[in-house]
Write a structure and sequence with these properties.
Shape: elongated
Largest sheet: 13 strands, mixed
Strand content: 25-35%
Number of helices: 7
Structural class: alpha+beta
Radius of gyration: 21 Å
CATH superfamily of the largest domain: Gcn5-related N-acetyltransferase (GNAT)
Distance between the termini: 19 Å
Helix content: 10-25%
Number of strands: 13
CATH class of the largest domain: Alpha Beta
Amino acid sequence: MKIVQYTPDLQTPVTQFYNHSTVHVPHCYPVKEEEFAIAMHRVTADKSDLKDDGLDSEAAFVAIVDGITQAFIHVGISRAGKNREKNLGVIRFLVYQRGARRVGQAVLERAEAYLKTFNVSQISAFPQECQYRFYHFEHAYLSDALDQVQGLLGFNGYHRSNGEVFLDWENYSVTPVPSSLPVKLSIEWKDGRGQLPNCTGHAHQNGEQVGICESRCGGEFSSHPDAQNWLHTTWLGIEDDFQGQGLGRYLLQYALQEMKKIGYRHAAISTNWENYRAFLFYSNCGYQTVDWTYEFVKDLSAAPTEKW
């Protein structure tokens, strides 16, 4: 086994490895090499050409066994700022071939050693704000479908710190049930990366907005044809005084109906892992759970875990 730093000449095998590894992850579609190259831009670019945004000092490591890629990790540094006193190590992405745990262990240790040179006291794995655009839908952390990665992180002292549950409604059909409230609903369309436009539903009463429902085309996250007729509802919010009266259900159903009219076939939605009220609501609207995703954090001041 050899572990090497990612360079553009590894683009083809690593892209293929990523696609193979994420084939069972919900809403992960095959990515093209040029799209993967964009995600790796800050790894391969001259650091003097980078703008002062995003992660610093990004690096990626590839484990190769007998000429075959078996593990890949992408890391960087989130610099200290007004919301954090110290630098934070970040694992943007990590995957290893199922069954090759020692290879996964080796590449994780190599990446951790790299991050520790920046005097970080904590490492965050799969934070939302650092996810690849083409990995899953918005708000996703590390998918349950990559359970071998979750197991490896847990074994190495990482613990779950945040989570997002995803629910799907394939071939959905809906008839809106009006709320008892006297409200006016409207739809706003906005073109994006997808073949179908993004949608924002509004609820107004006496000229004041009392509810909003925001949905994005799956094409925002992936150029793959299968992603285009999916919608992902990223936000549903009702003003406090108007909750509990059926307005959230009415607004969501109305938006889904209007999106169905222009060609959407499947609906997805997600919520925080501890938002049981929203989870209960969505699971009784017609959606079914397809994935639990988690952010993992490691405190480097903790005692090391004994290895096998």
